[in-house]
């Protein structure tokens, strides 16, 4: 009979980022510890068309990406309206799952510089 091996889970973020995350995330310590950390939060005042925002930390900058709900298809998409091509998702969790394996394009609002990262470290608000 084969012997069962116990797989040890790595500690939460310390070995991956070098610094453990704070016990509680507040506006003052939001994402200070590693690139590709992310959270989904309710959008402020956008209503049902943009119910959530995906906040991603990369190279010391927090990128706030709107998550829009398309009533016609009953699906979600990322970014502002008016894009030629939109990738559609059935749920918020399917967005996270997809971009944890495929790079997400992050666009700096002031310089329009583009960088790519995967969603690696979920953070609870």
Automatic annotation (TrEMBL):
UniProt keyword Thylakoid, yes or no: no
Superkingdom field: Eukaryota
Entry GO terms, CC: cytoplasm
InterPro entries attached to this UniProt entry: Immunoreceptor_sig_adapters, SH2, SH2_dom_sf
SUPFAM superfamilies linked: SH2 domain
Keyword line: SH2 domain
Presence of the UniProt keyword Phosphoprotein in the record: no
One Pfam family it belongs to: SH2
Domain annotation SH2: ranges: 35-123
Biological process per Gene Ontology, one example term: cell surface receptor protein tyrosine kinase signaling pathway
Protein name in UniProt: SH2 domain-containing protein
